[in-house]
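Ops channel
N.P.: pipeline sanity check, posting one input/output pair.
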Protein backbone atom coordinates (compact mmCIF):
# COMPACT_ATOMS: atom_id res chain seq x y z
CA UNK A 1 0.00 0.00 0.00
CA UNK A 2 1.27 3.46 -0.91
CA UNK A 3 0.62 6.57 1.13
CA UNK A 4 -1.05 9.79 0.07
CA UNK A 5 1.22 11.84 2.38
CA UNK A 6 4.48 10.90 4.09
CA UNK A 7 6.17 13.11 6.69
CA UNK A 8 9.91 12.54 7.21
CA UNK A 9 12.72 13.86 9.43
CA UNK A 10 10.48 15.14 12.19
CA UNK A 11 9.76 15.12 15.86
CA UNK A 12 6.61 12.99 15.69
CA UNK A 13 4.93 13.27 19.08
CA UNK A 14 2.59 10.29 19.04
CA UNK A 15 0.84 10.72 22.44
CA UNK A 16 0.57 6.93 22.48
CA UNK A 17 0.61 4.95 25.70
CA UNK A 18 4.39 5.23 25.97
CA UNK A 19 4.54 8.88 24.81
CA UNK A 20 6.94 7.68 22.13
CA UNK A 21 8.66 10.13 19.78
CA UNK A 22 9.17 8.93 16.20
CA UNK A 23 10.75 10.33 13.02
CA UNK A 24 8.11 9.85 10.38
CA UNK A 25 4.44 9.20 9.64
CA UNK A 26 2.46 7.99 6.63
CA UNK A 27 -1.15 8.79 5.77
CA UNK A 28 -3.38 6.83 3.40
CA UNK A 29 -6.56 8.67 2.45
CA UNK A 30 -8.17 9.71 5.78
CA UNK A 31 -6.31 7.35 8.12
CA UNK A 32 -2.84 7.11 9.61
CA UNK A 33 -1.14 4.26 7.77
CA UNK A 34 1.95 3.89 9.94
CA UNK A 35 4.29 5.69 12.32
CA UNK A 36 7.98 4.97 12.77
CA UNK A 37 11.45 5.66 11.42
CA UNK A 38 12.30 7.39 8.16
CA UNK A 39 13.37 4.11 6.57
CA UNK A 40 10.16 2.38 7.64
CA UNK A 41 7.98 5.12 6.17
CA UNK A 42 9.90 5.47 2.91
CA UNK A 43 8.54 2.12 1.74
CA UNK A 44 5.09 3.70 1.57
CA UNK A 45 6.21 6.39 -0.90
CA UNK A 46 4.78 5.98 -4.40
CA UNK A 47 4.65 8.05 -7.56
CA UNK A 48 1.67 10.12 -6.30
CA UNK A 49 2.73 10.40 -2.65
CA UNK A 50 3.23 13.89 -1.29
CA UNK A 51 6.47 13.85 0.71
CA UNK A 52 6.95 16.53 3.37
CA UNK A 53 10.34 17.05 5.00
CA UNK A 54 9.71 18.24 8.54
CA UNK A 55 13.35 19.26 9.04
CA UNK A 56 13.16 18.54 12.77
CA UNK A 57 9.84 20.29 13.35
CA UNK A 58 7.12 18.77 15.52
CA UNK A 59 4.23 16.74 14.15
CA UNK A 60 1.35 16.42 16.63
CA UNK A 61 -2.14 14.98 16.68
CA UNK A 62 -4.74 17.60 15.78
CA UNK A 63 -5.67 19.72 18.78
CA UNK A 64 -8.94 18.85 20.52
CA UNK A 65 -10.38 21.80 22.43
CA UNK A 66 -12.69 20.13 24.94
CA UNK A 67 -14.67 23.26 25.83
CA UNK A 68 -15.28 26.25 23.63
CA UNK A 69 -18.22 28.02 21.99
CA UNK A 70 -17.72 27.78 18.24
CA UNK A 71 -20.91 29.54 17.15
CA UNK A 72 -20.59 32.18 19.84
CA UNK A 73 -16.95 32.88 18.97
CA UNK A 74 -17.74 33.25 15.28
CA UNK A 75 -20.76 35.46 15.92
CA UNK A 76 -18.74 37.72 18.19
CA UNK A 77 -16.32 38.37 15.32
CA UNK A 78 -19.18 40.18 13.60
CA UNK A 79 -19.38 42.57 16.55
CA UNK A 80 -17.20 45.23 18.15
CA UNK A 81 -14.31 43.69 20.08
CA UNK A 82 -13.37 45.34 23.35
CA UNK A 83 -10.15 43.29 23.33
CA UNK A 84 -8.69 45.05 20.32
CA UNK A 85 -5.70 47.39 20.79
CA UNK A 86 -6.86 50.88 21.66
CA UNK A 87 -10.11 49.72 23.31
CA UNK A 88 -8.72 50.44 26.74
CA UNK A 89 -11.22 53.02 27.90
CA UNK A 90 -14.97 53.56 28.17
CA UNK A 91 -14.62 56.51 25.79
CA UNK A 92 -13.02 54.32 23.11
CA UNK A 93 -15.77 51.72 23.43
CA UNK A 94 -18.54 54.32 23.31
CA UNK A 95 -16.96 55.88 20.23
CA UNK A 96 -16.88 52.51 18.49
CA UNK A 97 -20.52 51.89 19.38
CA UNK A 98 -21.53 55.31 18.07
CA UNK A 99 -19.72 54.69 14.78
CA UNK A 100 -21.46 51.34 14.40
CA UNK A 101 -24.92 52.83 14.97
CA UNK A 102 -24.33 55.37 12.20
CA UNK A 103 -24.11 52.51 9.69
CA UNK A 104 -26.77 50.22 11.14
CA UNK A 105 -30.51 50.37 10.31
CA UNK A 106 -32.76 51.42 13.19
CA UNK A 107 -33.99 48.56 15.30
CA UNK A 108 -31.02 46.29 14.65
CA UNK A 109 -28.77 45.22 17.50
CA UNK A 110 -25.46 46.92 18.21
CA UNK A 111 -23.21 44.45 19.99
CA UNK A 112 -19.79 44.52 21.62
CA UNK A 113 -17.96 41.71 23.38
CA UNK A 114 -14.89 41.05 25.49
CA UNK A 115 -15.44 43.95 27.87
CA UNK A 116 -13.51 43.83 31.13
CA UNK A 117 -13.95 46.58 33.69
CA UNK A 118 -10.54 45.68 35.14
CA UNK A 119 -8.67 46.56 31.95
CA UNK A 120 -10.28 49.89 31.01
CA UNK A 121 -8.84 53.12 32.40
CA UNK A 122 -12.05 54.03 34.24
CA UNK A 123 -12.24 50.65 36.07
CA UNK A 124 -16.01 50.55 35.71
CA UNK A 125 -18.85 49.52 33.43
CA UNK A 126 -20.50 51.88 30.96
CA UNK A 127 -23.67 53.37 32.41
CA UNK A 128 -27.22 53.10 31.16
CA UNK A 129 -27.22 56.85 30.48
CA UNK A 130 -24.04 56.59 28.40
CA UNK A 131 -25.52 53.85 26.25
CA UNK A 132 -28.86 55.65 25.89
CA UNK A 133 -26.95 58.73 24.71
CA UNK A 134 -25.57 56.68 21.82
CA UNK A 135 -28.94 55.52 20.54
CA UNK A 136 -32.60 55.31 21.44
CA UNK A 137 -33.31 53.59 18.12
CA UNK A 138 -31.00 50.59 18.46
CA UNK A 139 -30.78 47.98 21.23
CA UNK A 140 -27.19 47.94 22.52
CA UNK A 141 -25.60 44.99 24.28
CA UNK A 142 -22.04 44.88 25.66
CA UNK A 143 -21.03 41.39 26.75
CA UNK A 144 -18.43 41.10 29.48
CA UNK A 145 -15.44 38.89 28.67
CA UNK A 146 -16.85 36.07 30.80
CA UNK A 147 -20.08 35.90 28.78
CA UNK A 148 -22.13 35.85 31.98
CA UNK A 149 -22.66 39.58 32.47
CA UNK A 150 -23.74 42.36 30.15
CA UNK A 151 -24.63 46.02 30.14
CA UNK A 152 -27.43 47.19 27.86
CA UNK A 153 -29.37 50.32 26.98
CA UNK A 154 -33.04 51.12 27.59
CA UNK A 155 -34.13 49.86 24.17
CA UNK A 156 -32.68 46.43 24.96
CA UNK A 157 -34.29 46.43 28.41
CA UNK A 158 -37.67 47.27 26.88
CA UNK A 159 -37.36 44.47 24.33
CA UNK A 160 -36.62 42.06 27.17
CA UNK A 161 -39.60 43.32 29.17
CA UNK A 162 -37.39 44.54 32.00
CA UNK A 163 -38.31 47.58 34.07
CA UNK A 164 -37.79 48.74 37.65
CA UNK A 165 -40.54 46.41 38.91
CA UNK A 166 -39.04 43.28 37.33
CA UNK A 167 -37.89 40.72 39.90
CA UNK A 168 -34.56 38.93 39.73
CA UNK A 169 -34.88 35.51 38.10
CA UNK A 170 -33.50 32.47 39.91
CA UNK A 171 -29.71 32.51 39.57
CA UNK A 172 -29.61 36.02 38.14
CA UNK A 173 -29.56 39.72 39.02
CA UNK A 174 -31.10 42.73 37.31
CA UNK A 175 -28.94 45.39 38.90
CA UNK A 176 -30.50 48.50 40.40
CA UNK A 177 -28.90 51.42 42.19
CA UNK A 178 -29.60 52.61 45.72
CA UNK A 179 -32.69 54.47 44.48
CA UNK A 180 -34.08 51.36 42.77
CA UNK A 181 -33.24 52.60 39.26
CA UNK A 182 -31.95 50.22 36.61
CA UNK A 183 -28.22 50.50 35.92
CA UNK A 184 -28.30 48.53 32.68
CA UNK A 185 -26.10 45.79 34.12
CA UNK A 186 -27.62 42.31 33.87
CA UNK A 187 -25.95 39.37 35.62
CA UNK A 188 -25.87 35.59 35.13
CA UNK A 189 -29.24 33.92 34.45
CA UNK A 190 -30.92 37.28 33.96
CA UNK A 191 -28.41 38.02 31.18
CA UNK A 192 -28.90 34.59 29.62
CA UNK A 193 -32.63 35.32 29.42
CA UNK A 194 -32.10 38.78 27.95
CA UNK A 195 -30.00 37.25 25.18
CA UNK A 196 -33.08 35.38 23.96
CA UNK A 197 -34.15 38.75 22.53
CA UNK A 198 -30.81 39.40 20.84
CA UNK A 199 -30.66 36.44 18.47
CA UNK A 200 -28.63 36.24 15.27
CA UNK A 201 -30.05 35.57 11.82
CA UNK A 202 -29.41 32.25 10.05
CA UNK A 203 -27.15 34.10 7.62
CA UNK A 204 -25.12 35.53 10.50
CA UNK A 205 -24.82 32.08 12.13
CA UNK A 206 -23.61 30.54 8.87
CA UNK A 207 -21.03 33.32 8.53
CA UNK A 208 -20.03 32.83 12.17
CA UNK A 209 -19.37 29.12 11.62
CA UNK A 210 -17.13 29.84 8.63
CA UNK A 211 -15.14 32.46 10.53
CA UNK A 212 -14.69 30.28 13.60
CA UNK A 213 -13.53 27.15 11.80
CA UNK A 214 -11.00 29.13 9.78
CA UNK A 215 -9.50 30.70 12.89
CA UNK A 216 -9.40 27.36 14.72
CA UNK A 217 -7.72 25.51 11.86
CA UNK A 218 -5.00 28.17 11.78
CA UNK A 219 -3.91 27.17 15.29
CA UNK A 220 -4.21 23.44 14.72
CA UNK A 221 -7.63 22.78 16.24
CA UNK A 222 -9.24 19.89 14.36
CA UNK A 223 -11.92 18.90 16.88
CA UNK A 224 -14.01 20.95 19.29
CA UNK A 225 -16.45 20.19 22.04
CA UNK A 226 -19.11 22.83 21.41
CA UNK A 227 -20.00 23.78 24.99
CA UNK A 228 -23.25 25.54 24.13
CA UNK A 229 -24.70 27.41 21.18
CA UNK A 230 -27.05 30.38 21.49
CA UNK A 231 -30.28 28.47 20.89
CA UNK A 232 -31.92 25.49 19.23
CA UNK A 233 -31.76 27.38 15.93
CA UNK A 234 -27.98 27.81 16.09
CA UNK A 235 -27.58 24.21 17.30
CA UNK A 236 -29.51 23.10 14.22
CA UNK A 237 -27.45 25.37 11.97
CA UNK A 238 -24.26 23.78 13.26
CA UNK A 239 -25.54 20.29 12.43
CA UNK A 240 -26.69 21.32 8.97
CA UNK A 241 -23.35 22.97 8.23
CA UNK A 242 -21.59 19.74 9.17
CA UNK A 243 -23.92 17.64 7.02
CA UNK A 244 -23.39 19.90 4.01
CA UNK A 245 -19.62 19.91 4.40
CA UNK A 246 -19.56 23.62 5.17
CA UNK A 247 -18.17 22.79 8.61
CA UNK A 248 -14.85 21.00 8.17
CA UNK A 249 -13.78 20.49 11.78
CA UNK A 250 -15.12 17.73 14.02
CA UNK A 251 -17.73 18.68 16.62
CA UNK A 252 -18.83 16.97 19.84
CA UNK A 253 -21.90 19.05 20.64
CA UNK A 254 -22.79 19.41 24.30
CA UNK A 255 -26.55 19.47 24.82
CA UNK A 256 -26.70 23.04 26.06
CA UNK A 257 -27.92 26.49 25.17
CA UNK A 258 -26.65 29.86 26.28
CA UNK A 259 -30.22 31.11 26.60
CA UNK A 260 -32.57 28.72 28.45
CA UNK A 261 -30.08 25.91 28.98
CA UNK A 262 -32.24 23.77 31.26
CA UNK A 263 -35.28 23.79 28.99
CA UNK A 264 -33.10 23.12 25.96
CA UNK A 265 -31.59 20.10 27.73
CA UNK A 266 -35.01 18.81 28.76
CA UNK A 267 -36.31 19.18 25.20
CA UNK A 268 -33.36 17.26 23.78
CA UNK A 269 -33.86 14.48 26.33
CA UNK A 270 -37.55 14.35 25.46
CA UNK A 271 -36.66 13.92 21.78
CA UNK A 272 -34.76 10.71 22.57
CA UNK A 273 -31.44 11.83 21.06
CA UNK A 274 -28.66 10.49 23.30
CA UNK A 275 -24.95 11.06 23.84
CA UNK A 276 -22.89 9.52 21.03
CA UNK A 277 -25.48 9.92 18.28
CA UNK A 278 -23.79 11.01 15.06
CA UNK A 279 -20.63 10.31 13.11
CA UNK A 280 -16.92 11.16 13.09
CA UNK A 281 -17.68 14.77 12.18
CA UNK A 282 -20.67 15.56 14.39
CA UNK A 283 -21.74 13.78 17.55
CA UNK A 284 -24.16 14.64 20.32
CA UNK A 285 -22.35 15.09 23.62
CA UNK A 286 -23.38 15.27 27.27
CA UNK A 287 -26.47 16.87 28.78
CA UNK A 288 -25.41 20.07 30.53
CA UNK A 289 -26.66 22.56 33.10
CA UNK A 290 -25.17 25.67 34.71
CA UNK A 291 -24.59 25.61 38.47
CA UNK A 292 -22.77 28.87 39.17
CA UNK A 293 -21.25 31.95 37.61
CA UNK A 294 -18.06 33.32 36.13
CA UNK A 295 -14.59 33.05 37.61
CA UNK A 296 -13.78 36.58 36.47
CA UNK A 297 -17.21 38.11 37.25
CA UNK A 298 -16.59 37.21 39.99
CA UNK A 299 -19.80 35.22 40.53
CA UNK A 300 -18.66 31.63 41.15
CA UNK A 301 -20.18 29.82 44.14
CA UNK A 302 -17.59 29.27 46.88
CA UNK A 303 -17.72 27.49 50.23
CA UNK A 304 -15.90 30.39 51.89
CA UNK A 305 -16.38 34.04 51.05
CA UNK A 306 -14.18 35.72 48.45
CA UNK A 307 -10.80 36.96 49.61
CA UNK A 308 -11.74 40.34 48.14
CA UNK A 309 -15.16 40.34 49.87
CA UNK A 310 -15.74 37.73 52.62
CA UNK A 311 -19.49 38.38 52.48
CA UNK A 312 -19.69 37.30 48.84
CA UNK A 313 -20.11 33.59 48.12
CA UNK A 314 -21.18 34.01 44.49
CA UNK A 315 -24.29 32.85 42.67
CA UNK A 316 -25.89 29.42 42.43
CA UNK A 317 -28.30 28.90 39.55
CA UNK A 318 -30.12 25.94 41.05
CA UNK A 319 -30.39 23.85 44.19
CA UNK A 320 -28.84 20.40 44.33
CA UNK A 321 -32.28 18.80 44.08
CA UNK A 322 -33.18 20.85 41.00
CA UNK A 323 -29.98 19.75 39.29
CA UNK A 324 -30.64 16.14 40.19
CA UNK A 325 -34.16 16.30 38.77
CA UNK A 326 -32.68 16.99 35.34
CA UNK A 327 -29.24 15.37 35.29
CA UNK A 328 -30.13 12.44 37.51
CA UNK A 329 -32.79 11.57 34.96
CA UNK A 330 -30.35 12.14 32.10
CA UNK A 331 -27.90 9.71 33.72
CA UNK A 332 -30.67 7.15 34.15
CA UNK A 333 -31.53 7.47 30.45
CA UNK A 334 -27.94 6.80 29.38
CA UNK A 335 -26.57 10.28 28.78
CA UNK A 336 -23.15 11.51 29.66
CA UNK A 337 -23.80 14.48 31.95
CA UNK A 338 -21.91 17.63 32.84
CA UNK A 339 -22.29 21.04 34.44
CA UNK A 340 -20.63 24.41 34.35
CA UNK A 341 -19.07 24.48 37.82
CA UNK A 342 -16.32 26.93 38.76
CA UNK A 343 -16.51 27.41 42.53
CA UNK A 344 -15.84 24.70 45.09
CA UNK A 345 -19.40 24.96 46.43
CA UNK A 346 -20.83 24.36 42.96
CA UNK A 347 -18.41 21.50 42.28
CA UNK A 348 -19.28 19.84 45.60
CA UNK A 349 -23.00 20.14 44.90
CA UNK A 350 -22.62 18.55 41.46
CA UNK A 351 -20.46 15.73 42.82
CA UNK A 352 -23.28 15.00 45.27
CA UNK A 353 -25.64 14.74 42.29
CA UNK A 354 -23.35 12.36 40.40
CA UNK A 355 -22.75 10.22 43.48
CA UNK A 356 -26.49 9.88 44.06
CA UNK A 357 -27.16 9.14 40.39
CA UNK A 358 -24.52 6.39 40.29
CA UNK A 359 -25.80 4.89 43.53
CA UNK A 360 -29.37 4.72 42.27
CA UNK A 361 -28.46 3.72 38.72
CA UNK A 362 -24.94 2.23 38.58
CA UNK A 363 -23.17 2.55 35.23
CA UNK A 364 -19.60 1.78 34.29
CA UNK A 365 -17.70 4.00 31.86
CA UNK A 366 -20.14 6.89 32.24
CA UNK A 367 -17.36 9.49 31.83
CA UNK A 368 -19.43 12.23 33.43
CA UNK A 369 -17.68 15.57 33.13
CA UNK A 370 -17.22 18.83 35.04
CA UNK A 371 -16.78 21.86 32.80
CA UNK A 372 -14.10 24.20 34.22
CA UNK A 373 -13.73 22.59 37.66
CA UNK A 374 -12.24 25.91 38.77
CA UNK A 375 -11.45 25.68 42.49
CA UNK A 376 -10.79 21.95 42.83
CA UNK A 377 -9.48 21.52 46.35
CA UNK A 378 -7.91 18.18 47.42
CA UNK A 379 -11.11 16.80 48.96
CA UNK A 380 -13.00 17.47 45.74
CA UNK A 381 -10.21 15.92 43.66
CA UNK A 382 -10.48 12.76 45.74
CA UNK A 383 -14.21 12.56 45.08
CA UNK A 384 -13.67 13.14 41.36
CA UNK A 385 -11.25 10.21 41.33
CA UNK A 386 -13.62 7.94 43.20
CA UNK A 387 -16.51 8.84 40.90
CA UNK A 388 -14.33 8.53 37.75
CA UNK A 389 -15.14 12.06 36.67
CA UNK A 390 -13.52 13.95 33.79
CA UNK A 391 -12.78 17.57 34.69
CA UNK A 392 -12.36 20.04 31.82
CA UNK A 393 -10.05 22.76 33.18
CA UNK A 394 -9.13 25.91 31.26
CA UNK A 395 -5.32 26.25 31.17
CA UNK A 396 -5.26 29.69 29.48
CA UNK A 397 -7.56 31.39 32.03
CA UNK A 398 -4.84 32.37 34.53
CA UNK A 399 -2.80 33.91 31.71
CA UNK A 400 -5.43 36.58 31.05
CA UNK A 401 -7.34 36.62 34.33
CA UNK A 402 -4.84 35.42 36.92
CA UNK A 403 -4.34 38.79 38.59
CA UNK A 404 -8.07 39.07 39.38
CA UNK A 405 -8.13 35.44 40.59
CA UNK A 406 -5.32 36.17 43.04
CA UNK A 407 -7.28 39.17 44.33
CA UNK A 408 -10.63 37.40 44.61
CA UNK A 409 -9.64 33.88 45.70
CA UNK A 410 -6.26 34.24 47.40
CA UNK A 411 -4.60 30.95 48.35
CA UNK A 412 -7.36 28.98 46.65
CA UNK A 413 -5.58 29.74 43.37
CA UNK A 414 -3.17 26.95 44.33
CA UNK A 415 -6.00 24.59 43.34
CA UNK A 416 -7.49 26.46 40.40
CA UNK A 417 -7.47 24.36 37.22
CA UNK A 418 -5.01 22.03 39.01
CA UNK A 419 -3.55 20.00 36.14
CA UNK A 420 -0.62 18.66 38.20
CA UNK A 421 -2.91 17.30 40.89
CA UNK A 422 -5.30 15.79 38.35
CA UNK A 423 -2.45 13.92 36.68
CA UNK A 424 -0.94 12.76 39.97
CA UNK A 425 -4.34 11.55 41.14
CA UNK A 426 -4.83 9.54 37.96
CA UNK A 427 -7.76 11.73 36.93
CA UNK A 428 -8.09 12.12 33.16
CA UNK A 429 -8.60 15.83 32.52
CA UNK A 430 -9.05 17.44 29.10
CA UNK A 431 -8.21 21.05 28.28
CA UNK A 432 -10.68 23.62 27.01
CA UNK A 433 -10.16 27.28 26.18
CA UNK A 434 -13.76 28.41 26.70
CA UNK A 435 -13.21 30.76 23.77
CA UNK A 436 -14.40 33.47 23.22
CA UNK A 437 -13.98 34.06 26.97
CA UNK A 438 -10.24 33.92 26.38
CA UNK A 439 -7.91 32.94 23.55
CA UNK A 440 -8.52 29.71 21.64
CA UNK A 441 -4.78 29.46 20.86
CA UNK A 442 -3.78 26.10 22.38
CA UNK A 443 -0.14 27.08 22.60
CA UNK A 444 -0.95 29.83 25.06
CA UNK A 445 -2.85 27.17 26.98
CA UNK A 446 0.12 24.80 26.84
CA UNK A 447 2.45 27.66 27.82
CA UNK A 448 0.28 28.44 30.83
CA UNK A 449 -0.10 24.81 31.92
CA UNK A 450 3.69 24.44 31.86
CA UNK A 451 4.72 27.82 33.31
CA UNK A 452 1.74 28.88 35.49
CA UNK A 453 2.35 32.62 35.30
CA UNK A 454 -0.02 35.43 34.44
CA UNK A 455 0.50 37.59 31.35
CA UNK A 456 2.24 40.06 33.68
CA UNK A 457 4.65 37.35 34.84
CA UNK A 458 3.13 36.86 38.29
CA UNK A 459 3.44 33.25 39.54
CA UNK A 460 0.05 31.58 39.73
CA UNK A 461 -0.34 28.36 41.71
CA UNK A 462 2.98 27.16 40.35
CA UNK A 463 2.71 23.87 42.26
CA UNK A 464 0.36 22.88 39.44
CA UNK A 465 2.98 23.09 36.68
CA UNK A 466 3.11 20.15 34.28
CA UNK A 467 5.60 19.21 31.56
CA UNK A 468 5.18 19.78 27.83
CA UNK A 469 4.20 16.22 26.93
CA UNK A 470 1.63 16.20 29.71
CA UNK A 471 0.20 19.47 28.44
CA UNK A 472 0.00 18.14 24.88
CA UNK A 473 -1.92 15.10 26.16
CA UNK A 474 -4.49 17.41 27.79
CA UNK A 475 -5.14 18.93 24.36
CA UNK A 476 -5.17 15.69 22.36
CA UNK A 477 -5.74 12.19 23.71
CA UNK A 478 -7.61 13.31 26.82
CA UNK A 479 -9.99 15.40 24.74
CA UNK A 480 -10.75 12.34 22.64
CA UNK A 481 -11.27 10.30 25.80
CA UNK A 482 -13.73 12.87 27.15
CA UNK A 483 -15.93 12.27 24.08
CA UNK A 484 -15.51 8.44 23.99
CA UNK A 485 -13.36 8.77 20.84
CA UNK A 486 -9.87 7.79 21.98
CA UNK A 487 -9.96 4.74 19.69
CA UNK A 488 -10.22 6.89 16.56
CA UNK A 489 -8.28 10.08 17.34
CA UNK A 490 -6.18 11.94 19.89
CA UNK A 491 -2.89 10.15 19.19
CA UNK A 492 -0.75 9.32 16.16
CA UNK A 493 -1.24 5.59 15.75
CA UNK A 494 -1.91 3.31 12.82
CA UNK A 495 -5.59 3.16 11.89
CA UNK A 496 -6.60 6.39 13.58
CA UNK A 497 -8.06 9.37 11.74
CA UNK A 498 -5.49 11.45 9.87
CA UNK A 499 -5.85 14.64 11.90
CA UNK A 500 -2.30 15.99 12.27
CA UNK A 501 -0.58 19.33 12.59
CA UNK A 502 2.94 20.55 11.82
CA UNK A 503 4.50 23.23 14.04
CA UNK A 504 7.04 25.86 13.01
CA UNK A 505 9.68 24.38 15.34
CA UNK A 506 10.42 21.53 17.71
CA UNK A 507 8.12 22.00 20.68
CA UNK A 508 10.30 19.80 22.88
CA UNK A 509 13.39 21.94 22.19
CA UNK A 510 11.57 25.26 22.61
CA UNK A 511 12.46 27.24 25.76
CA UNK A 512 9.48 26.98 28.09
CA UNK A 513 8.94 30.74 28.15
CA UNK A 514 8.55 30.72 24.35
CA UNK A 515 5.88 28.02 24.06
CA UNK A 516 3.20 30.68 23.59
CA UNK A 517 4.95 31.89 20.42
CA UNK A 518 4.67 28.57 18.56
CA UNK A 519 2.70 28.69 15.32
CA UNK A 520 1.12 25.99 13.20
CA UNK A 521 2.49 25.62 9.68
CA UNK A 522 0.13 22.92 8.41
CA UNK A 523 -3.20 21.44 9.50
CA UNK A 524 -4.34 18.14 8.02
CA UNK A 525 -7.86 16.98 8.86
CA UNK A 526 -9.28 13.68 7.65
CA UNK A 527 -6.24 13.32 5.42
CA UNK A 528 -6.81 16.64 3.67
CA UNK A 529 -4.64 19.75 3.98
CA UNK A 530 -7.04 22.44 5.20
CA UNK A 531 -4.56 25.07 6.30
CA UNK A 532 -1.05 26.10 5.30
CA UNK A 533 0.66 29.08 6.84
CA UNK A 534 1.13 30.62 3.39
CA UNK A 535 -2.42 29.91 2.18
CA UNK A 536 -5.68 28.19 3.08
CA UNK A 537 -7.33 25.30 1.28
CA UNK A 538 -10.84 25.11 2.71
Amino acid sequence: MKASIVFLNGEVITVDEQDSIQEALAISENKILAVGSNDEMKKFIGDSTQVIDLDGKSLLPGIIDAHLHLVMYGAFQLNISCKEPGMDSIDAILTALKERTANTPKGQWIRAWGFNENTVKEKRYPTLAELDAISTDHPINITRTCGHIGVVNSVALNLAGIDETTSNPQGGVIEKDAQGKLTGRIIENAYMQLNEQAGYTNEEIHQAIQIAQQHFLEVGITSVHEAGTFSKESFRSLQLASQKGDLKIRVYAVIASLEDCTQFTLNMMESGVVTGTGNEFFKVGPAKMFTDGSSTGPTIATREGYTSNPENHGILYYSEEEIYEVLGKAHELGYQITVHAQGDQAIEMYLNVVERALKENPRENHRHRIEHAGISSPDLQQRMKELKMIPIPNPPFPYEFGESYLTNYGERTDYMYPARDFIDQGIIAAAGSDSPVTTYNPFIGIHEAVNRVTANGTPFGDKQKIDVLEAIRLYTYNGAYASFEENIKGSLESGKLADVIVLDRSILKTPLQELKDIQVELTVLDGEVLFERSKTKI
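N.P.: looks fine end to end. The first strand starts at residue 5 and ends at 8.
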